[in-house]
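quick q for whoever's on today - can somebody do inverse folding on this one?? i tried earlier but teh output was garbage lol. tokens:
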């Protein structure tokens, strides 16, 4: 069991498993460790997940989806929540998210939020994203408009 006989069939099986694992983990589900508190409590600092790269192959992210964004090539991925899509107007008023003039209910946001941002229109081919932990000051977050080309996929869970 621990030391199988090395036969041609065994070598072919090992090569196929290695090739499948390489393709799967490089192009379908990339593992990553969550660093930072901007998505708490939805995703905890130090947590482990997979970025499912095929999630947006045939569709685009919608408001409320959590997406993985490529920051520096494929090595650094930021997790952010989509707040608005192309053509929508987004603002923060009294700590509340307002999209196209309507206040959005965000049950995933825990704790008080005091963000104040004037209305801005999301440009074509872009998304407006932010983290879920809005009790942190806005200066401590990476948020705003980002290109759809930067979307790497979505976390599996």
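ok took a stab at it. sequence:
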């Amino acid at each position: 069991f621990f030391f199988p006989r090395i036969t041609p069939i065994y070598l072919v099986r090992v090569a196929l498993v290695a090739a499948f694992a390489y393709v799967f983990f490089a192009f379908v589900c990339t593992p990553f460790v969550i660093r930072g508190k901007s998505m708490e409590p939805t995703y905890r600092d130090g947590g482990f997940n997979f970025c499912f790269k095929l999630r947006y192959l045939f569709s685009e992210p919608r408001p409320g989806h959590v997406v993985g964004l490529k920051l520096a090539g494929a090595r650094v991925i930021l997790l952010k929540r989509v707040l608005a899509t192309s053509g929508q107007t987004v603002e923060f008023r009294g700590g509340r998210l307002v999209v196209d003039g309507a206040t959005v209910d965000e049950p995933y946001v825990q704790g008080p939020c005091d963000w104040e941002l004037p209305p801005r229109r999301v440009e074509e081919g872009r998304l407006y994203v932010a983290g879920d932990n809005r009790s942190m000051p806005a200066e401590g977050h990476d948020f705003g408009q980002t290109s759809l080309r930067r979307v790497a996929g979505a976390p599996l869970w």
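fwiw The radius of gyration is 20 Å. also Helices lie at 8-27. so keep that in mind when u check it
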